[in-house]
Amino acid sequence: MGVWWIVVVAVLTHTASATVREYDWEVEYKFWQPDCIEGAVMTVNGQFPGPTIQAVAGDTIVVHLTNKLTTEGLVIHWHGIRQLGSPWADGAAGVTQCAINPGETFTYKFTVEKPGTHFYHGHYGMQRSAGLYGSLIVDVAKGQRERLRYDGEFNLLLSDWWHEPIPSQELGLSSKPMRWIGEAQSILINGRGQFNCSLAAQFSNTSLPMCTFKEGDQCAPQKLNVEPNKTYRIRLASTTALASLNLAVQGHKLVVVEADGNYVTPFTTDDIDIYSGESYSVLLTTDQDPSQNYYISVGVRGRKPNTTQALTILNYVTAPASKLPSSPPPVTPRWDDFERSKNFSKKIFSAMGSPSPPKKYRKRLILLNTQNLIDGYTKWAINNVSLVTPATPYLGSVKYNLKLGFNRKSPPRSYRMDYDIMNPPPFPNTTTGNGIYVFPFNVTVDVIIQNANVLKGVVSEIHPWHLHGHDFWVLGYGDGKFKPGIDEKTYNLKNPPLRNTAILYPYGWTALRFVTDNPGVWFFHCHIEPHLHMGMGVVFAEGLNRIGKIPDEALGCGLTKQFLMNRNRN
Ligand code: C2O
Ligand code: CU
Q1: Distance 100 CA to ligand 1 centre (A)
Q2: Which atom of ligand 1 is nearest to the CA of 277?
Protein backbone atom coordinates (compact mmCIF):
# COMPACT_ATOMS: atom_id res chain seq x y z
CA MET A 1 0.00 0.00 0.00
CA GLY A 2 2.68 2.47 1.06
CA VAL A 3 4.81 1.75 -1.98
CA TRP A 4 1.95 2.37 -4.39
CA TRP A 5 1.21 5.69 -2.74
CA ILE A 6 4.77 6.84 -3.33
CA VAL A 7 4.56 5.84 -6.99
CA VAL A 8 1.35 7.81 -7.46
CA VAL A 9 2.81 10.91 -5.83
CA ALA A 10 5.91 10.64 -7.98
CA VAL A 11 3.81 10.44 -11.14
CA LEU A 12 1.71 13.43 -10.09
CA THR A 13 4.68 15.64 -9.21
CA HIS A 14 6.32 14.61 -12.44
CA THR A 15 3.36 15.69 -14.56
CA ALA A 16 2.97 18.86 -12.55
CA SER A 17 6.51 19.95 -13.34
CA ALA A 18 6.41 18.97 -17.02
CA THR A 19 6.36 21.89 -19.40
CA VAL A 20 4.66 22.28 -22.74
CA ARG A 21 7.10 23.87 -25.18
CA GLU A 22 5.33 25.31 -28.14
CA TYR A 23 6.92 26.52 -31.37
CA ASP A 24 5.72 28.10 -34.61
CA TRP A 25 8.00 27.07 -37.43
CA GLU A 26 8.06 28.11 -41.05
CA VAL A 27 10.18 26.20 -43.51
CA GLU A 28 11.39 27.90 -46.67
CA TYR A 29 14.38 28.03 -48.98
CA LYS A 30 16.85 30.83 -48.51
CA PHE A 31 20.06 31.70 -50.24
CA TRP A 32 22.78 30.78 -47.80
CA GLN A 33 26.54 30.30 -47.77
CA PRO A 34 27.16 27.21 -45.63
CA ASP A 35 30.73 26.91 -46.91
CA CYS A 36 31.10 30.47 -48.21
CA ILE A 37 29.61 29.40 -51.57
CA GLU A 38 26.01 30.45 -52.06
CA GLY A 39 23.29 27.87 -52.55
CA ALA A 40 19.61 27.25 -51.78
CA VAL A 41 19.21 25.95 -48.24
CA MET A 42 16.10 24.83 -46.39
CA THR A 43 15.70 27.01 -43.34
CA VAL A 44 13.43 26.97 -40.31
CA ASN A 45 12.29 30.46 -39.35
CA GLY A 46 15.07 31.81 -41.53
CA GLN A 47 17.76 29.88 -39.65
CA PHE A 48 20.20 27.23 -40.80
CA PRO A 49 20.55 24.83 -39.12
CA GLY A 50 17.05 25.13 -37.67
CA PRO A 51 16.52 26.35 -34.09
CA THR A 52 17.66 24.05 -31.29
CA ILE A 53 14.88 22.55 -29.21
CA GLN A 54 16.05 22.53 -25.61
CA ALA A 55 13.76 20.56 -23.30
CA VAL A 56 13.81 18.49 -20.14
CA ALA A 57 12.66 14.90 -19.75
CA GLY A 58 8.89 14.67 -19.44
CA ASP A 59 8.21 17.83 -21.46
CA THR A 60 5.63 17.97 -24.20
CA ILE A 61 6.83 19.47 -27.47
CA VAL A 62 4.32 21.14 -29.78
CA VAL A 63 5.52 22.31 -33.18
CA HIS A 64 3.15 24.09 -35.56
CA LEU A 65 4.97 23.49 -38.81
CA THR A 66 4.06 25.66 -41.78
CA ASN A 67 5.21 24.69 -45.24
CA LYS A 68 6.38 27.84 -46.99
CA LEU A 69 8.03 25.92 -49.82
CA THR A 70 6.22 26.73 -53.02
CA THR A 71 6.31 23.39 -54.82
CA GLU A 72 7.20 20.65 -52.34
CA GLY A 73 5.54 18.75 -49.54
CA LEU A 74 7.20 18.68 -46.13
CA VAL A 75 7.52 16.61 -42.94
CA ILE A 76 9.93 16.65 -39.99
CA HIS A 77 11.12 13.55 -38.16
CA TRP A 78 12.25 13.74 -34.51
CA HIS A 79 15.22 11.42 -34.68
CA GLY A 80 15.73 9.46 -31.46
CA ILE A 81 12.36 10.32 -29.92
CA ARG A 82 10.33 7.15 -29.39
CA GLN A 83 6.88 8.70 -29.94
CA LEU A 84 5.29 6.40 -27.36
CA GLY A 85 1.56 6.81 -27.86
CA SER A 86 2.01 9.34 -30.68
CA PRO A 87 3.13 7.28 -33.71
CA TRP A 88 1.39 9.78 -36.01
CA ALA A 89 3.90 12.47 -34.89
CA ASP A 90 6.98 10.56 -36.05
CA GLY A 91 7.22 12.60 -39.23
CA ALA A 92 8.07 9.95 -41.82
CA ALA A 93 6.29 10.77 -45.10
CA GLY A 94 4.36 7.82 -46.51
CA VAL A 95 4.84 5.86 -43.29
CA THR A 96 3.23 7.83 -40.47
CA GLN A 97 1.71 10.81 -42.24
CA CYS A 98 1.05 12.58 -45.52
CA ALA A 99 3.47 15.27 -46.58
CA ILE A 100 2.27 18.72 -45.53
CA ASN A 101 1.22 20.65 -48.65
CA PRO A 102 2.64 24.07 -49.52
CA GLY A 103 0.83 26.75 -47.54
CA GLU A 104 -0.50 24.31 -44.95
CA THR A 105 0.31 23.95 -41.26
CA PHE A 106 0.58 20.67 -39.39
CA THR A 107 0.94 20.34 -35.63
CA TYR A 108 3.30 17.80 -34.09
CA LYS A 109 2.76 16.97 -30.44
CA PHE A 110 4.83 14.48 -28.50
CA THR A 111 6.61 14.00 -25.21
CA VAL A 112 10.33 13.57 -24.69
CA GLU A 113 10.50 10.85 -22.06
CA LYS A 114 14.18 10.68 -21.24
CA PRO A 115 17.30 12.84 -21.40
CA GLY A 116 19.53 12.62 -24.46
CA THR A 117 21.19 14.27 -27.42
CA HIS A 118 18.98 14.11 -30.49
CA PHE A 119 18.14 16.00 -33.65
CA TYR A 120 15.32 16.53 -36.11
CA HIS A 121 15.33 16.52 -39.88
CA GLY A 122 13.22 16.51 -43.02
CA HIS A 123 12.03 13.04 -44.01
CA TYR A 124 10.47 13.57 -47.41
CA GLY A 125 12.49 13.11 -50.59
CA MET A 126 16.03 14.24 -49.85
CA GLN A 127 15.10 17.28 -47.77
CA ARG A 128 17.62 16.37 -45.11
CA SER A 129 20.34 16.81 -47.73
CA ALA A 130 18.84 20.21 -48.51
CA GLY A 131 19.70 21.38 -45.00
CA LEU A 132 16.46 20.73 -43.14
CA TYR A 133 17.78 19.78 -39.71
CA GLY A 134 18.49 21.03 -36.21
CA SER A 135 19.28 19.83 -32.68
CA LEU A 136 16.89 18.45 -30.09
CA ILE A 137 18.45 18.31 -26.65
CA VAL A 138 16.69 16.78 -23.67
CA ASP A 139 18.13 17.37 -20.20
CA VAL A 140 17.27 15.50 -17.02
CA ALA A 141 13.98 16.50 -15.43
CA LYS A 142 14.01 19.35 -12.93
CA GLY A 143 14.88 18.07 -9.49
CA GLN A 144 16.62 15.00 -10.90
CA ARG A 145 20.37 14.79 -10.73
CA GLU A 146 22.38 14.53 -13.95
CA ARG A 147 24.75 11.62 -13.39
CA LEU A 148 27.47 13.21 -15.50
CA ARG A 149 29.58 15.97 -13.93
CA TYR A 150 30.55 18.89 -16.14
CA ASP A 151 30.98 22.65 -15.96
CA GLY A 152 29.61 23.62 -19.34
CA GLU A 153 28.43 22.18 -22.60
CA PHE A 154 28.65 22.62 -26.36
CA ASN A 155 26.55 21.24 -29.13
CA LEU A 156 28.09 20.27 -32.46
CA LEU A 157 25.69 19.19 -35.20
CA LEU A 158 27.71 17.65 -38.04
CA SER A 159 26.57 17.46 -41.65
CA ASP A 160 27.84 17.37 -45.21
CA TRP A 161 27.09 19.74 -48.05
CA TRP A 162 26.99 19.59 -51.86
CA HIS A 163 26.97 22.45 -54.33
CA GLU A 164 24.72 20.51 -56.71
CA PRO A 165 21.09 21.40 -55.89
CA ILE A 166 19.01 18.60 -54.36
CA PRO A 167 16.47 18.23 -57.21
CA SER A 168 19.39 17.65 -59.55
CA GLN A 169 20.91 15.11 -57.12
CA GLU A 170 17.59 13.26 -56.93
CA LEU A 171 17.27 13.27 -60.70
CA GLY A 172 20.77 11.87 -61.10
CA LEU A 173 20.14 9.04 -58.65
CA SER A 174 16.96 8.01 -60.44
CA SER A 175 18.43 8.33 -63.94
CA LYS A 176 19.49 5.51 -66.21
CA PRO A 177 22.38 5.06 -65.91
CA MET A 178 22.47 6.38 -62.37
CA ARG A 179 24.53 9.52 -61.78
CA TRP A 180 26.13 9.28 -58.36
CA ILE A 181 26.27 12.44 -56.23
CA GLY A 182 30.00 12.00 -55.50
CA GLU A 183 31.68 13.11 -52.31
CA ALA A 184 30.52 16.20 -50.44
CA GLN A 185 32.08 19.58 -51.18
CA SER A 186 32.24 20.38 -47.47
CA ILE A 187 31.71 19.04 -43.99
CA LEU A 188 29.72 21.46 -41.83
CA ILE A 189 29.95 21.98 -38.08
CA ASN A 190 26.75 23.66 -36.89
CA GLY A 191 26.06 24.50 -40.51
CA ARG A 192 29.42 26.14 -41.17
CA GLY A 193 32.20 24.80 -43.35
CA GLN A 194 35.21 25.69 -45.44
CA PHE A 195 35.32 25.03 -49.16
CA ASN A 196 38.64 25.29 -50.91
CA CYS A 197 40.45 26.85 -48.00
CA SER A 198 41.82 25.72 -44.67
CA LEU A 199 42.05 27.12 -41.17
CA ALA A 200 45.38 25.34 -41.02
CA ALA A 201 46.84 26.50 -44.33
CA GLN A 202 50.03 27.64 -42.59
CA PHE A 203 50.93 23.98 -41.96
CA SER A 204 49.42 22.04 -44.79
CA ASN A 205 51.45 20.93 -47.74
CA THR A 206 48.31 21.11 -49.87
CA SER A 207 47.79 24.14 -52.02
CA LEU A 208 44.74 25.26 -50.04
CA PRO A 209 44.84 28.94 -49.16
CA MET A 210 44.09 30.27 -45.69
CA CYS A 211 40.38 30.93 -45.14
CA THR A 212 39.43 34.57 -44.94
CA PHE A 213 36.29 34.80 -42.87
CA LYS A 214 34.78 38.02 -41.81
CA GLU A 215 33.08 38.31 -38.48
CA GLY A 216 29.43 37.46 -39.01
CA ASP A 217 29.91 35.46 -42.23
CA GLN A 218 27.51 32.51 -42.47
CA CYS A 219 30.48 30.21 -43.05
CA ALA A 220 32.70 31.54 -40.25
CA PRO A 221 33.35 28.69 -37.81
CA GLN A 222 32.04 28.94 -34.28
CA LYS A 223 34.89 28.76 -31.83
CA LEU A 224 34.43 26.87 -28.58
CA ASN A 225 35.45 29.20 -25.78
CA VAL A 226 36.63 27.32 -22.71
CA GLU A 227 38.25 28.06 -19.38
CA PRO A 228 41.30 26.09 -18.27
CA ASN A 229 40.87 23.13 -15.91
CA LYS A 230 37.19 22.60 -16.44
CA THR A 231 35.21 19.72 -17.87
CA TYR A 232 32.86 20.26 -20.80
CA ARG A 233 30.21 18.06 -22.26
CA ILE A 234 30.33 18.13 -26.05
CA ARG A 235 27.16 16.85 -27.66
CA LEU A 236 27.74 15.44 -31.12
CA ALA A 237 25.19 14.39 -33.67
CA SER A 238 25.62 13.50 -37.32
CA THR A 239 22.93 14.19 -39.85
CA THR A 240 25.19 13.71 -42.86
CA ALA A 241 23.64 12.63 -46.14
CA LEU A 242 26.56 10.32 -46.86
CA ALA A 243 29.77 10.88 -44.92
CA SER A 244 31.03 8.77 -42.04
CA LEU A 245 33.00 11.13 -39.84
CA ASN A 246 35.79 11.14 -37.29
CA LEU A 247 36.21 13.97 -34.79
CA ALA A 248 39.29 14.78 -32.75
CA VAL A 249 40.36 17.65 -30.52
CA GLN A 250 44.04 18.38 -30.75
CA GLY A 251 45.95 17.46 -27.58
CA HIS A 252 42.81 16.47 -25.67
CA LYS A 253 41.28 13.15 -24.71
CA LEU A 254 37.58 12.52 -25.08
CA VAL A 255 35.55 10.43 -22.64
CA VAL A 256 32.53 8.90 -24.36
CA VAL A 257 29.53 8.90 -21.98
CA GLU A 258 26.37 8.86 -24.09
CA ALA A 259 25.34 7.25 -27.36
CA ASP A 260 21.97 7.90 -29.10
CA GLY A 261 20.39 9.20 -25.89
CA ASN A 262 21.59 6.37 -23.64
CA TYR A 263 24.35 6.46 -21.07
CA VAL A 264 27.28 4.18 -21.89
CA THR A 265 30.14 2.81 -19.80
CA PRO A 266 32.62 5.72 -20.02
CA PHE A 267 35.77 5.13 -22.02
CA THR A 268 38.60 7.37 -23.12
CA THR A 269 39.57 7.90 -26.74
CA ASP A 270 41.73 10.22 -28.85
CA ASP A 271 39.10 10.53 -31.55
CA ILE A 272 35.55 9.39 -32.20
CA ASP A 273 33.89 7.84 -35.25
CA ILE A 274 30.38 9.12 -35.83
CA TYR A 275 28.03 7.93 -38.57
CA SER A 276 24.91 9.46 -40.00
CA GLY A 277 22.05 9.07 -37.56
CA GLU A 278 24.26 8.68 -34.49
CA SER A 279 24.68 11.00 -31.54
CA TYR A 280 27.17 11.01 -28.69
CA SER A 281 28.23 13.00 -25.69
CA VAL A 282 31.89 13.22 -24.84
CA LEU A 283 33.53 14.88 -21.85
CA LEU A 284 36.60 16.98 -22.47
CA THR A 285 38.85 18.36 -19.73
CA THR A 286 40.74 21.53 -20.55
CA ASP A 287 44.05 20.37 -19.08
CA GLN A 288 46.42 21.61 -21.79
CA ASP A 289 48.66 24.68 -22.03
CA PRO A 290 46.17 27.55 -21.46
CA SER A 291 48.20 30.00 -23.51
CA GLN A 292 47.41 28.04 -26.68
CA ASN A 293 44.39 27.28 -28.82
CA TYR A 294 43.65 23.86 -30.35
CA TYR A 295 42.10 22.52 -33.54
CA ILE A 296 38.90 20.53 -33.54
CA SER A 297 38.93 18.45 -36.72
CA VAL A 298 36.22 16.49 -38.49
CA GLY A 299 37.27 14.30 -41.39
CA VAL A 300 35.71 11.68 -43.64
CA ARG A 301 36.20 7.94 -43.17
CA GLY A 302 34.61 4.83 -44.64
CA ARG A 303 34.69 6.08 -48.25
CA LYS A 304 37.67 7.39 -50.17
CA PRO A 305 37.62 11.01 -49.01
CA ASN A 306 37.54 13.88 -51.42
CA THR A 307 36.40 16.48 -48.92
CA THR A 308 38.60 18.79 -46.89
CA GLN A 309 38.66 18.25 -43.14
CA ALA A 310 36.32 20.65 -41.34
CA LEU A 311 38.06 22.65 -38.64
CA THR A 312 37.14 24.88 -35.80
CA ILE A 313 39.01 26.07 -32.74
CA LEU A 314 38.98 25.23 -29.07
CA ASN A 315 39.79 28.64 -27.66
CA TYR A 316 41.15 28.83 -24.12
CA VAL A 317 39.93 32.19 -22.85
CA THR A 318 43.43 32.67 -21.46
CA ALA A 319 44.75 32.84 -25.04
CA PRO A 320 43.83 35.44 -27.67
CA ALA A 321 40.83 34.20 -29.68
CA SER A 322 42.58 35.06 -32.93
CA LYS A 323 45.68 33.04 -32.12
CA LEU A 324 45.95 30.00 -34.38
CA PRO A 325 47.10 26.70 -32.89
CA SER A 326 50.85 26.17 -32.94
CA SER A 327 50.80 22.73 -34.53
CA PRO A 328 48.85 21.07 -37.36
CA PRO A 329 45.36 19.63 -36.76
CA PRO A 330 44.86 15.93 -35.92
CA VAL A 331 45.08 13.67 -38.95
CA THR A 332 41.88 11.72 -39.63
CA PRO A 333 42.55 7.96 -39.30
CA ARG A 334 42.85 6.11 -42.59
CA TRP A 335 39.46 5.91 -44.31
CA ASP A 336 39.65 2.20 -45.11
CA ASP A 337 40.97 0.92 -41.79
CA PHE A 338 37.70 -0.88 -41.09
CA GLU A 339 39.24 -2.95 -38.29
CA ARG A 340 39.83 0.30 -36.44
CA SER A 341 36.25 1.36 -37.10
CA LYS A 342 34.84 -1.93 -35.84
CA ASN A 343 37.06 -1.83 -32.78
CA PHE A 344 35.63 1.55 -31.94
CA SER A 345 32.04 0.30 -32.22
CA LYS A 346 32.90 -2.67 -30.04
CA LYS A 347 34.08 -0.40 -27.21
CA ILE A 348 30.57 0.82 -26.58
CA PHE A 349 28.72 -0.85 -23.70
CA SER A 350 25.65 0.28 -21.86
CA ALA A 351 26.18 2.03 -18.54
CA MET A 352 25.68 0.15 -15.29
CA GLY A 353 22.03 -0.07 -14.38
CA SER A 354 20.77 0.06 -17.98
CA PRO A 355 18.03 -2.39 -18.94
CA SER A 356 19.42 -5.62 -20.34
CA PRO A 357 17.84 -7.45 -23.27
CA PRO A 358 15.46 -10.41 -22.97
CA LYS A 359 17.46 -13.62 -23.21
CA LYS A 360 15.54 -15.05 -26.14
CA TYR A 361 13.86 -13.76 -29.26
CA ARG A 362 10.40 -14.72 -30.51
CA LYS A 363 10.70 -13.45 -34.11
CA ARG A 364 13.73 -13.02 -36.26
CA LEU A 365 14.50 -11.32 -39.55
CA ILE A 366 17.69 -11.73 -41.53
CA LEU A 367 17.95 -8.81 -43.94
CA LEU A 368 20.34 -9.02 -46.86
CA ASN A 369 21.49 -5.65 -48.20
CA THR A 370 22.18 -5.67 -51.94
CA GLN A 371 22.66 -3.20 -54.73
CA ASN A 372 20.57 -4.11 -57.76
CA LEU A 373 19.35 -3.05 -61.16
CA ILE A 374 15.72 -2.69 -62.16
CA ASP A 375 15.46 -2.13 -65.93
CA GLY A 376 18.85 -0.50 -65.79
CA TYR A 377 17.98 1.75 -62.82
CA THR A 378 20.29 1.32 -59.84
CA LYS A 379 18.50 0.45 -56.58
CA TRP A 380 19.21 -0.90 -53.13
CA ALA A 381 17.17 -3.86 -52.00
CA ILE A 382 16.53 -5.74 -48.76
CA ASN A 383 15.92 -9.45 -49.28
CA ASN A 384 15.43 -8.60 -52.92
CA VAL A 385 12.79 -5.92 -52.39
CA SER A 386 13.54 -2.26 -53.05
CA LEU A 387 11.18 -0.14 -50.95
CA VAL A 388 8.84 2.36 -52.53
CA THR A 389 6.49 3.87 -49.95
CA PRO A 390 2.81 3.95 -50.98
CA ALA A 391 0.62 7.00 -51.63
CA THR A 392 -1.35 6.22 -48.47
CA PRO A 393 0.71 6.30 -45.26
CA TYR A 394 0.93 2.83 -43.70
CA LEU A 395 -0.26 4.11 -40.34
CA GLY A 396 -3.55 5.23 -41.88
CA SER A 397 -3.99 2.01 -43.87
CA VAL A 398 -3.53 -0.21 -40.81
CA LYS A 399 -5.56 2.01 -38.49
CA TYR A 400 -8.59 2.10 -40.81
CA ASN A 401 -7.97 -1.31 -42.35
CA LEU A 402 -7.75 -0.04 -45.91
CA LYS A 403 -6.86 -3.23 -47.75
CA LEU A 404 -5.60 -1.51 -50.89
CA GLY A 405 -3.23 0.86 -49.10
CA PHE A 406 -0.25 -1.43 -49.54
CA ASN A 407 0.69 -5.02 -50.34
CA ARG A 408 -0.44 -7.11 -47.34
CA LYS A 409 1.96 -9.93 -48.10
CA SER A 410 5.02 -9.80 -45.86
CA PRO A 411 8.36 -9.29 -47.61
CA PRO A 412 10.81 -12.24 -47.24
CA ARG A 413 11.96 -12.80 -43.65
CA SER A 414 15.32 -14.10 -44.81
CA TYR A 415 17.35 -14.67 -47.96
CA ARG A 416 18.63 -17.73 -49.77
CA MET A 417 21.50 -18.99 -47.67
CA ASP A 418 23.47 -19.99 -50.77
CA TYR A 419 23.74 -16.31 -51.78
CA ASP A 420 27.40 -15.37 -52.17
CA ILE A 421 27.86 -12.10 -50.28
CA MET A 422 31.51 -11.79 -51.36
CA ASN A 423 30.73 -11.25 -55.05
CA PRO A 424 28.51 -9.04 -57.20
CA PRO A 425 24.95 -10.40 -57.45
CA PRO A 426 24.77 -13.05 -60.22
CA PHE A 427 21.21 -11.91 -61.03
CA PRO A 428 21.20 -8.18 -60.29
CA ASN A 429 17.54 -7.78 -61.20
CA THR A 430 15.09 -7.19 -58.36
CA THR A 431 11.61 -5.81 -57.69
CA THR A 432 10.17 -2.81 -55.94
CA GLY A 433 7.62 -3.39 -53.19
CA ASN A 434 5.75 -1.80 -50.32
CA GLY A 435 5.01 -4.79 -48.06
CA ILE A 436 5.81 -4.50 -44.34
CA TYR A 437 6.80 -6.77 -41.44
CA VAL A 438 3.98 -7.02 -38.88
CA PHE A 439 4.79 -8.13 -35.33
CA PRO A 440 2.51 -8.93 -32.40
CA PHE A 441 2.56 -6.58 -29.41
CA ASN A 442 5.27 -7.03 -26.78
CA VAL A 443 7.42 -9.71 -28.34
CA THR A 444 11.19 -9.77 -28.66
CA VAL A 445 12.41 -9.34 -32.22
CA ASP A 446 15.91 -9.97 -33.53
CA VAL A 447 17.05 -8.33 -36.72
CA ILE A 448 20.25 -9.43 -38.38
CA ILE A 449 21.40 -7.05 -41.08
CA GLN A 450 23.68 -8.74 -43.58
CA ASN A 451 26.04 -6.87 -45.89
CA ALA A 452 27.16 -8.00 -49.34
CA ASN A 453 29.18 -6.96 -52.36
CA VAL A 454 27.81 -4.12 -54.53
CA LEU A 455 26.93 -4.43 -58.22
CA LYS A 456 30.42 -4.05 -59.62
CA GLY A 457 33.96 -4.53 -58.38
CA VAL A 458 35.14 -5.74 -55.01
CA VAL A 459 33.32 -3.28 -52.79
CA SER A 460 30.97 -3.50 -49.83
CA GLU A 461 29.79 -0.24 -48.32
CA ILE A 462 29.06 0.98 -44.80
CA HIS A 463 25.36 1.37 -43.94
CA PRO A 464 24.22 3.04 -40.71
CA TRP A 465 20.78 1.51 -40.01
CA HIS A 466 18.33 3.60 -38.02
CA LEU A 467 15.09 2.44 -36.37
CA HIS A 468 12.20 4.75 -35.61
CA GLY A 469 10.04 4.28 -32.49
CA HIS A 470 12.61 2.23 -30.60
CA ASP A 471 15.98 1.85 -29.08
CA PHE A 472 17.47 -1.56 -29.81
CA TRP A 473 20.27 -3.51 -28.19
CA VAL A 474 23.26 -4.04 -30.45
CA LEU A 475 24.04 -7.67 -29.64
CA GLY A 476 27.05 -8.07 -31.87
CA TYR A 477 28.94 -7.63 -35.09
CA GLY A 478 30.57 -10.28 -37.25
CA ASP A 479 32.48 -10.74 -40.47
CA GLY A 480 31.15 -12.67 -43.45
CA LYS A 481 27.79 -14.34 -43.54
CA PHE A 482 25.76 -14.70 -40.35
CA LYS A 483 25.64 -18.38 -39.38
CA PRO A 484 22.32 -19.19 -37.68
CA GLY A 485 22.75 -21.46 -34.67
CA ILE A 486 26.43 -20.55 -34.29
CA ASP A 487 26.88 -16.79 -34.32
CA GLU A 488 24.23 -16.25 -31.62
CA LYS A 489 26.80 -17.67 -29.19
CA THR A 490 28.94 -14.56 -29.68
CA TYR A 491 26.14 -12.17 -28.64
CA ASN A 492 26.69 -9.79 -25.77
CA LEU A 493 23.57 -10.24 -23.63
CA LYS A 494 25.11 -8.70 -20.54
CA ASN A 495 25.69 -5.04 -21.35
CA PRO A 496 24.96 -4.41 -25.04
CA PRO A 497 24.46 -0.73 -25.84
CA LEU A 498 20.94 0.57 -26.39
CA ARG A 499 20.89 2.66 -29.55
CA ASN A 500 18.69 3.76 -32.40
CA THR A 501 21.37 3.53 -35.09
CA ALA A 502 23.78 0.65 -35.72
CA ILE A 503 26.54 0.26 -38.26
CA LEU A 504 26.64 -2.48 -40.84
CA TYR A 505 30.29 -2.92 -41.83
CA PRO A 506 31.52 -4.08 -45.25
CA TYR A 507 31.01 -7.83 -45.83
CA GLY A 508 29.73 -8.29 -42.27
CA TRP A 509 26.58 -8.61 -40.19
CA THR A 510 25.15 -6.76 -37.20
CA ALA A 511 22.61 -8.25 -34.77
CA LEU A 512 19.94 -6.12 -33.07
CA ARG A 513 17.20 -6.93 -30.58
CA PHE A 514 14.15 -4.92 -29.55
CA VAL A 515 10.77 -5.41 -27.92
CA THR A 516 7.63 -4.46 -29.84
CA ASP A 517 6.25 -2.31 -27.02
CA ASN A 518 5.32 0.74 -29.08
CA PRO A 519 2.12 0.37 -31.10
CA GLY A 520 2.66 2.00 -34.49
CA VAL A 521 4.39 1.71 -37.83
CA TRP A 522 8.12 2.31 -37.79
CA PHE A 523 10.64 2.96 -40.49
CA PHE A 524 13.92 1.00 -40.36
CA HIS A 525 16.37 2.18 -42.99
CA CYS A 526 19.87 3.07 -44.01
CA HIS A 527 20.48 6.63 -42.86
CA ILE A 528 22.50 7.46 -45.96
CA GLU A 529 20.10 9.76 -47.78
CA PRO A 530 20.77 8.60 -51.36
CA HIS A 531 20.61 4.93 -50.28
CA LEU A 532 17.19 5.43 -48.68
CA HIS A 533 16.11 7.31 -51.77
CA MET A 534 17.12 4.26 -53.82
CA GLY A 535 14.99 1.90 -51.73
CA MET A 536 17.19 0.88 -48.80
CA GLY A 537 14.62 0.49 -46.07
CA VAL A 538 11.93 -1.69 -44.56
CA VAL A 539 8.90 -0.97 -42.38
CA PHE A 540 7.89 -2.61 -39.12
CA ALA A 541 4.39 -2.54 -37.64
CA GLU A 542 3.42 -3.68 -34.15
CA GLY A 543 0.52 -3.63 -31.69
CA LEU A 544 -1.79 -2.62 -34.50
CA ASN A 545 -5.04 -2.93 -32.52
CA ARG A 546 -3.59 -0.64 -29.84
CA ILE A 547 -2.93 2.35 -32.04
CA GLY A 548 -4.73 5.34 -30.55
CA LYS A 549 -6.38 8.31 -32.16
CA ILE A 550 -4.66 9.82 -35.18
CA PRO A 551 -5.40 13.45 -36.07
CA ASP A 552 -7.20 13.55 -39.43
CA GLU A 553 -4.74 16.22 -40.59
CA ALA A 554 -2.00 13.55 -40.69
CA LEU A 555 -3.90 11.52 -43.27
CA GLY A 556 -5.26 13.93 -45.88
CA CYS A 557 -3.87 12.03 -48.85
CA GLY A 558 -4.22 8.75 -50.73
CA LEU A 559 -6.98 6.36 -49.67
CA THR A 560 -7.23 7.78 -46.16
CA LYS A 561 -8.37 11.13 -47.55
CA GLN A 562 -11.48 9.59 -49.14
CA PHE A 563 -12.05 7.35 -46.14
CA LEU A 564 -12.01 10.25 -43.68
CA MET A 565 -14.27 12.36 -45.89
CA ASN A 566 -16.86 9.58 -45.99
CA ARG A 567 -16.57 8.87 -42.30
CA ASN A 568 -16.88 12.48 -41.27
CA ARG A 569 -19.89 12.96 -43.52
CA ASN A 570 -21.79 10.10 -41.83
CU1 C2O B 1 17.04 10.24 -39.00
CU2 C2O B 1 14.22 7.82 -40.70
O3 C2O B 1 15.71 9.05 -39.94
CU1 CU C 1 23.31 2.58 -47.01
Answers
A1: 17
A2: 1
